[in-house]
Amino acid sequence: MAEVQKLVLARSERGVYILFTEDGKVLPKQISTQLVAERSGLQKLIVTFACDGDGIRVIGDPEDNPDGGKPSDP
Length: 74
Hints:
By secondary structure, the protein is mainly β. About 0% of the residues lie in helices and about 35% in strands.
């Protein structure tokens, strides 16, 4: 079984939440984060990333990729 990477949520000096890997690396391309308390008591984290094709690519979407969702060589 593959080891699961744990994530850490922390507040920046400006008071915004930032999502990090367990070893302290910021997840790239974060645009916004929102921590929402549900009525059930569950806290839900909503993170918005910029999918710009460089830092984050979308693969597996056959209608947008004639190769059937397989990444192509640059």
